[in-house]
């Protein structure tokens, strides 16, 4: 008998809760705390939440797992160039639509929308500045602009940058990130590979330093040209670097590729990259390399001849 009374009590209790829910007097939803948009950043690699201000202070590198988040060209310039030393070059150059190209959308419309969305004219910024007091010609590609694709403007700006550096006897650093040549410009985009490479050859003939920095991702025609023509090739950790995509290669070879294929670490192992440098150490590393490769200051001997370098084995300009 007691069990029946107890069961009736439980049943009536459940009925009471059910009625309360129907009447809306009990709310099972708890108000969530509002978090300001952009205040926190969730690492895509380890999932750790980091205060955005702290992440930027660490140059967008996760302090927990070391994951290098992608940064735009403006942020990269701030990270590398000394304050108040940056002078932008060729900002007036704008892409056109010489082929009248159209896929799902007209190329000129795609250009206009991208320019309005991210505030860039094209996929690279170039200019002159200083790294720890040392003069440098710097080009920075931006993946946000149509995947960092290399069109005529990208090729022209990088060529002019290299030519200016050759004239001024400046070292050149190009931060690479790209999906390759821009298909909407056809052969004109492929021509940029040869044009930039020719400018780099003249720069090398002048015995001046060129350092490409390969970031995630660096692929296609950029990898097949100026990204791999450096005197010293640096890369960020875990960056994807290659020409054709992984899936295309696997389908062509009909083989499963290693998990680390086309990573900076794999390329370092096979000699395509000289060093992997974390972003937090990149500026000082570049400054050290540039300082080591600075041409010696010319001095004048007692007889008026210019010494090419000082020391016991010095040659004068007449002897050379």
Can you offer a commentary on this structure?
This protein is an alpha/beta fold and 320 residues long. It folds into 2 domains: 41-70, no CATH class; 72-300, Alpha-Beta Complex (2-enoyl-CoA Hydratase, Chain A, domain 1). The chain has helices spanning 2-23, 52-57, 73-80, 107-118, 152-168, 187-205, 220-223, 246-253, 264-269, 279-292; strands at residues 40-42, 49-51, 87-89, 124-131, 134-141, 172-178, 210-218, 234-235, 275-276, 299-300, 306-307. The strands form 3 sheets. The chain has a 7-stranded mixed β-sheet with strand order 3-4-5-6-7-8-9, sandwiched between helices. Strands 1-2 form a two-stranded antiparallel ribbon. β7 (210-218), α7 and β8 form a beta-alpha-beta unit. α5 (152-168) packs parallel to α6 (187-205). It is globular. The termini are far apart. Mean pLDDT is 87; it is low at 298-302 and 305-320.
Radius of gyration: 28 Å
CATH class of the largest domain: Alpha Beta
Q: Would you tell me which CATH topology of the largest domain applies? A: 2-enoyl-CoA Hydratase, Chain A, domain 1
Which structural class should the secondary elements be placed in? alpha/beta
Assembly type of the chains comes to single chain
How many domains would you count in the coordinates? 2
CATH architecture of the largest domain: Alpha-Beta Complex
State the major sheet.
7 strands, mixed
Q: Assign a percent range to the helix content.
A: 25-40%
SS summary, helix count: 10
Give the overall average pLDDT.
87
Order of strands in the sheet with most strands? 3-4-5-6-7-8-9
User: How many DSSP-defined strands?
Assistant: 11
